[in-house]
Design goal:
The chain is an all-alpha fold and about 100 residues long. It is built from 6 helices and no strands. The longest helix has 23 residues, at about 1-25. The radius of gyration is 28 Å and the shape is elongated. It starts with a helix and ends with a helix.
Length: about 100
């Protein structure tokens, strides 16, 4: 008798899981504008995972992601675009160009 009760519990869990997956995968109406807005706003889960992995493997990626976010928000200026700064000897070349 206990075997039948155990099988009934396991069977009801399996049937419940299948019913939940069917309910979860049901289609819903989305307008074209709403779909395009959602697609443009948020990165996919896979691309977000790859960016996270890339941040771990390459520390410079963190700076690149921050720069991209600043650019999207409009906080990116010309000074940041130059990078690390002038190379050695660049100031001398610029001053000689300005004198001529």
């Amino acid at each position: 008798m206990n075997d039948w009760i155990g099988l009934a519990v396991i069977g009801s869990i399996v049937v419940g899981a299948i019913a939940f997956l069917i309910w979860l995968s049901r289609p819903y109406e989305v307008t074209t504008e709403e779909f395009e807005k959602r697609a443009a706003e948020a990165p996919s889960l896979l691309s977000a995972g790859f960016v996270g992995l890339q941040k771990i493997l390459d520390p410079a990626t963190t700076k690149a992601v921050i720069a991209q976010e600043d650019l999207r928000e409009g906080r990116f200026d010309v000074k940041q675009a130059k990078g690390d700064g002038p190379e050695a000897g660049d100031e001398e070349e610029e001053s000689s160009r300005q004198e001529q």
